[in-house]
Amino acid sequence: MKKKNKIIGLGFILSANIAICSTQLVSCKNLSQLSEQDVASNSNNAISKTSETNNDKKRGQSLSKPTSNQSTEHETANKTTKPSQSKTMSDQTEKQTQQLTHPLTKLTPASPVTSEIKIKDPTTIKPDLQANEANDASKSEKQELNTDSSKPLKNDPKQELVLQIPKVENSEINNAILNARYTGFNYYSQPDYHFGKNAEELIKDQELKLELLDKQNKPVEGVKWYVRIYYPNDVVYELKNNLNKDTGLVYVNDNTIKGFNDTDKEKNVEVWGEYQGGLYQLKVKIWNHKQSQNIAEYNQSLKRVKELSQGWHHLSPLQRALKAYEWLGNNVRYQEGQYLGDDQTAYSAIIGLASVCTGYAKGFKMFMDELKIPNILLTGDVGSEKHIWNMIELDDGWYHVDATWGAKKLGRDVNYNYFLVNDYDLKIQNRKYNNRFPFNQMGQKYRAYKLNNFITSEEDIKKIINKQLMLKTNNNILQLHTPYTNQFEPTVKNVIEKMFQQRSNSYAKRNPEMNMVKYEYFLPKLENSNIKSVNLTIEKHTNSKSSYILKINKNEKVDLNNENIFVEGAFIKSIENYDNHTLVYLYNFDDLKNQNIKINVYKIGYDFKYEQKTFTFDVLQQPKPEGLFVGTDNKSGKIINVDETIEYRIDVGVWQSVQGTSINLNETGTKTVSLRKKANATHLLSEVQVIEPFKPRDLDREIKIYNGYVTGVDNSMQYRVKGTDKWIDIIGNKILLPSGTYDFWIKPGNGNLASEIYTLQV
Predict the structure, then answer these.
(1) CATH second-level architecture of 530-618?
(2) pTM for this structure?
(3) With contact defined as beta carbons under 8 Å apart, do 407 and 360 qualify?
(4) Is the pLDDT confidence value at 67 over 80?
(5) Who wins on pLDDT, 280 or 22?
(6) Which positions carry the signal peptide feature in this UniProt record (predicted)?
(7) Which CATH number fits domain 314-370+375-441: 3.40.309.10, 3.30.2350.10, 3.40.50.10240, 3.10.620.30?
């Protein structure tokens, strides 16, 4: 497996107009909740337990950069502070610095400093500001907090910006990192420097280049790097050669690390950068060997899918789905894996070319995701066996696709009985499952699209008979596929008798084929003397309804309808008959670029003569919508940049038209929102845009009270007095607030909801 290089930088992006991408990262159990004996004995994963149970939370965050207006505002506020207040803040900073300069243990290369070193407990610090017992960070997270009712707070208490950020001396770095659970992770961070992310993930042998960026997002030189682990001991290592294997990392050079986790559990560590007395944190998850293998195999499979499907994107969604179905059916054989789980991935089908139903279904889903076709996985029981397959959405609704049962076997070709079918076609074989879609959301137009002469109505039967008898092939055996039912036997006989005005003895045989039935009938032969010759001219035509029309001009009046007109390369949307011409409206072209369309006309009793049968259309498709999600709180938001030409749906619900210029989303949370632009006279239906509202990480392990300061905050966050509605933007990464109870969250914005509210007593 080739090494993968990633260049990262940790960043506080301070613009509320940029989508915030957050990562809920694993954080070890707060050591303030452990006794000294617990820490010293490292008993039974007391630290790592919490990190193992939080590994499924989302990752990554971009924070915002303060605007010049904000800077000016707070500089002005600082200048207008009364002299006595300025002196108080200066004294507070001096005392706080003194309190953080207690004796520390020096760090030597590859030699750990553990939590057994005497660490000053923040509960012993007496803050200079008014505060109570809740200054202990762990207590503030647990206890139920109530504002002192004797001193009611204003709805908008002013925050005091802390302009002087303390610097850490070289001899203090290790303990400053170990104490970050009390002080807050960004207590020593200067706002001018940042990383592009606050979190990263590594698989085995994947390299990560560490870069600290300035305000212009340019790397700075002279950063010292450290790695903190929590298990088996709470330890800080300097980034040097021979880095301890407990970190799950390998030293590559002075600013590059590589994932190397040979355990059976993922590791969660912190990488710290020290620059000019400031400390900056990056949380890193290192996947274990099996997880690394799964991720690498997924990426390899996706790369192969991109290669295979690169020439399919200009096709219609139906044709793209057909290509994927046929590739799996022709290339993947059904075979159980040698080891447990080997046959349960897309990799087993796409790369290994041998899998069971899970591999077929996940492989097909990977194709659909790459080809931008809405799809879901569906599970159920077939007899006593568990089974999994797919559903995809085309322009008229949802269809089942079972690539496993469509694979060719014993020299037979790909089986199309399970490509674009409905509930009836599956449940007839005692397949049990819970379908997420009611009947009105299921598609009908493309049902059993690839089955030869599939019928569901009398019109379908008449159309096939018209074509077969007028092709002049001397073949009077009619073959039909129908759903698995007997109801079509009398229907076919009745249609034949009406068309030929004679009693029919046409039934030949009925042959059940899995979920369908194949019928064969003998048709009466036509007498040539009863056939009338009619001249036609066919041409392209446009009107106010459509740019995709074929006009059939007739030299005499002949009624033509869907039973008589056959088109290849597109579907017939509708037909309009006039005295001297017929208009055939086309849509859903196989090729979304230049499409050649072939047309034929058949009707019993007529021999139509026309020269041109093939026409080329320059097909235009509506552009994909560019809607934007804007969060309004932690559950709701709206979609902007839309209009009434667009349809939307929430999750996989029913499509509905946009009313106005925005879509209000009330308590929909992180449910996906899909948009598509409606077809019109000149453009076909657009591709689907899928919007996934993002929910930032929780703040319960980040925001702290330390020495009277609220730390662990940044410009991406807001606060309010508990019980009020007015949210106030936070400026900087350390603030002073009047005593009281406050709510904090990562503010909602472009692309993201707000985080869950975290309540803190100040």
Answers:
(1) Sandwich (2.60)
(2) 0.77
(3) yes
(4) no
(5) 280
(6) 1-21
(7) 3.10.620.30
